[in-house]
Amino acid sequence: MISELRVPVIVAPMAGGVSTPELVAAAVQAGGFGFLAAGYLTPEALADQIDRAEEATGAVFGVNLFVPGARSDVDLTGYQQRVRVEGSRYGVEPGKPTWDDDAYPAKVEMVLARRVPVVSFTFGCPDATTVGRLHAAGCEVVVTVTNPAEAQQAARVGADVLCVQGIDAGAHRGVFVDDPTSPEGGPGYGTLAALRLVAAQTDLPLVAAGGLVHGADVAAVLAGGAVAAQLGTAFLGCPEAGTAATHREALRTGTSETTVTRAFSGRPARGLVNRFITEHGPHAPAAYPQLHNLTRPVRVASGKAGDPDAMSLWAGQTYRMAEPAPAAELVRRLDEQARDALSRASARFPVSS
Questions:
Q1: pTM here?
Q2: Domains of the chain with CATH codes
Q3: Is residue 131 pLDDT above 70, yes or no?
């Protein structure tokens, strides 16, 4: 399915309320594809979104799952105090820094029972048994990878497609194992570099992700060997997206650079630099999802107050180049821009007589 899209543009799964069935449906109706984000949803809420996506797309959509990682035993006392002080700014108490598996087993069973057409995985590699069960249910399996070693692991368990994520990407990095000694959690390859390195290791179809907001970017990764481009930041401004108003305004203003930080969740993620990142990022331990649960009330309160300084404003490096539009219009625009870019590139290589 992923390799045969009429328009090789995929709306990335964006957890936290940004991904919606309406956003996915608009992309599909325009010839592209889209993923629902199961991350942070309850199984019941995910079931509702699957129902709505099935009805709106005729069962042409995907669901992305977070693979749970190892439980960190790092001391969080100091960071809890920092977040408690932040909470006092907004009149809220911090959350409890608990570990959880994001109801992963229940969500796996749900996508199996519902025979979701495409199931993708982020933050780790599913085991071969899970992949085999999905195949038996008729599901196509996509695994997000950030380097060649992860690509080889995903291929061994039977993945059908690899989503190659570059360091340019907004939001969380999909590294299988978060290296606490590295600010990026592991090797930080740019999107095109990661794509070419992975392509040298496998014949599996590849989807490229990271910093892609224009049709010329789509054309570039197609020329680099991808079968499709996955875009997230480009769709944050769509009316169908559940992007918070304060987040939208920060993207529109475009005054901040982006950086990779563990400040909000304990896992490396790229977002707009704000006060919270500047003050707390250097002190944030590698402890996901404990920090995510700890900082959630502060992030929510900051957003409700219209204050971007303590929100996780996820965005890719090229966010300023994104051109907000309704999702279907954006997919068509990306298609036209990509075709134009490929045509201009082709003209640079005239056929010799």
A1: 0.96
A2: 2-73+101-245+323-347 (3.20.20.70)
A3: yes
